[in-house]
Amino acid sequence: MVDDCVGCGFCCIKTPCDASRRLYPGASQCPQLIWLDNRYECGLMKISGPVGVGYRKELHAGAGCCCNLNTWRKNVTKREPQLDRSAFNPIPEIMQVFIRCVANEFMSSDRMHLTLANMTSQLRESGYGEEELRSIVKGCMHIFNENRNSFMKSFMG
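and the corresponding structure tokens:
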């Protein structure tokens, strides 16, 4: 069942679109999500010309809300960004860029887990502690999962 969008912001806040993750990697909330006239709107949807048409097509403009468990629809209000402790990432910025590039390749999450297991083993031999290793692996997987194309997630697992 699909209902008209009421501008509650649920989809954009809970699961940013591929365009948002491409344009603003690592952002805690998409800068294109605008609170205007007591509802959320997507700034990408307002871009004119062929670029705007492309975004509207990619983001399924006019398709409505398909999340029937979304309770935000009944209470459309400006939501303050939640402090997400899992968003903290101990990975240096240059390594985060590399992982984002890897995430855009045709690579399964299983392959990424095997690669991280190999890296963990090598870092352990270099003297890294178990807590630090868990934090590094968690950070790497967070970046990888947040930057994968939705097609690859559904196709490759």
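(Above: one complete record from the training split.) Residues 71 and 144 are 29 Å apart (CA to CA).
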